[in-house]
Amino acid sequence: QVQLVESGGGLVQAGGSLRLSCAASGRTFRTYAMGWFRQTPGKEREFVAAISWNGDNTYYADTVKGRFTISRDNAKNTVYLQANSLKPEDTAVYYCAGDPDYYTLVRGTTGAVHYWGQGTHVTVSS
User: Which residues contact 11 (CB under 8 A, 6 or more apart)?
Assistant: First the structure.
C-alpha cells in the first residue's frame, strides 16, 4: 500500500515558478514509477510528467516540455515537479500518481493507475 501526499501548490504570477512535492509512504515507493497529472473543472485528468522507478527515464506532455522537470529522491520517498515559466493555462489541481508500470503513466491511462494523491491547487494569474 502506498499513500501519496502532495504539497507546494499556490498562487503565482505568470512567468513564475513553483515546486510541487509528493511524499509517499511505504517501502514499495522506490519500485514504483511516479507521475504528475492535472485537472481543471469539467475536463478529464491529463498527463503532465512521469519518471521511472530509478529516475533514468522521464517523459513529458508537449504542453509542459521544456518548462517542467520531474525528479525523485528515493531515499526521501519523494517525487518533485519543478514548474517554471508558468502560464495561466497551467492553472489546475495537480495530482501525484504512482504505478508499478511506467508506461501506464506515460500513456495517461488514469483508470489503471494504482495510487493517487489528494491533489494540490496551482493558480497562475495573468
Answer: 123, 124, 125
The span from the CA of 109 to the CA of 113, in Å, is 7
Q: Are 95 and 108 in contact (CB under 8 A)?
A: no
Cell 485528468 maps to which residue? Answer: 45
What backbone torsions phi and psi does residue 51 show, to the nearest 5 degrees?
Answer: -140, 140
The angle at the Cα of 116, spanning 36 to 63, to the nearest 5 degrees, equals 20
Alpha carbon distance 126, 12 (integer Å): 9
Q: What is the mean pLDDT of residues 113-124?
A: 97
Cα–Cα distance for residue pair 86/76, rounded to 1 Å: 27
Q: Identify the pLDDT of residue 2.
A: 84
Is residue 63 scored above 80 in pLDDT? yes
